[in-house]
Design brief:
The protein is mainly α. 71% of the residues lie in helices and 0% in strands. The longest helix has 26 residues, at 100-125. The two termini are 28 Å apart.
């Protein structure tokens, strides 16, 4: 239990001499954004995700056999936009592979721009979102989340993928001391799950009981602040900007 709580505390340490410095906390904030934008996309844009591509592949299968409420076009646009964003994020990651602070800052800045476009489109389109705005929003949000995932993959803080929780939940169970495992990193894994759940709950509550623009506005502010933080904190070239050997 002591290791479990120490693991959680380690996520929120900003020690510049630690292996990952503020990157762990920044990736946790991106996980919150995943919950926010997928709540928005599913509830506002129809049965489509902009971050969870596994879900979109399944939705595409449903649409192909004519299941009501699912769209082949929306699923394909989401998958294509995410892939394009991941390609762009991959180029940023390749350019700044030796400095994770600049990598996060540049990728998050581009993501913030795409989220800002989504905020503007939502404000202009109103509620319910017109069909033309719907696809533009899927493109902007899918691209933003593709950039995020490519950057998070290259930053490579263990168990903080920001989107994919299937392996995270598997790790919590499979590495548990109940089955003879060491329970290593169970704390940070649980933080990822709870954070995405919190993002989904907040996003859904704002869509259903507030204004549909609010989840995207919060996501934009979160990513923009993260970009500023990593850019500023990484400027002095601390140890955490370099990937552990």
């Amino acid at each position: 239990m002591r290791i479990f709580f120490a693991d959680i505390r380690g996520l929120f340490r900003l020690d510049p001499d630690s292996a990952h410095g503020p990157l762990s906390l920044l990736l946790v904030s991106m996980t919150l954004v995943t919950g926010l934008v997928d709540a928005f996309s599913y509830l506002v844009l129809g049965h489509v995700f902009v971050a969870n591509m596994t879900g979109n592949v399944v939705f595409l299968g449903f649409a192909l056999i004519g299941a009501p409420g699912f769209s082949i076009t929306a699923s394909l646009v989401a998958l294509g936009s995410f892939a394009a964003g991941a390609l762009t994020g991959g180029r940023i990651a390749a350019k700044h592979a030796e400095h994770r602070g600049r990598l996060h800052s540049f990728a998050a800045t581009l993501q913030a721009v795409l989220l800002a476009i989504a905020v503007i489109l939502t404000a202009l389109g109103g509620s319910p979102v017109p069909a033309g705005y719907r696809y533009a929003l899927i493109v902007a949000l899918g691209g933003a989340m593709g950039v995020q995932n490519a950057a998070a993959r290259k930053i490579a803080v263990p168990d903080l993928t920001t989107t994919v929780l299937t392996l995270t939940i598997t790790g919590i169970a499979a590495d548990s001391s109940l089955v003879g495992g060491q329970g290593s990193r169970a704390g940070r894994r649980l933080v990822s799950v709870v954070t995405m759940l919190a993002g989904a709950v907040i996003g859904a509550a704002l869509v259903l009981h507030g204004q549909i623009i609010y989840p995207l506005a919060i996501a934009f502010l979160t990513i923009a602040l993260g970009a500023a933080a990593s850019g500023t904190l990484g400027r002095s070239d601390p140890a955490w900007v370099h990937a552990p050997s």
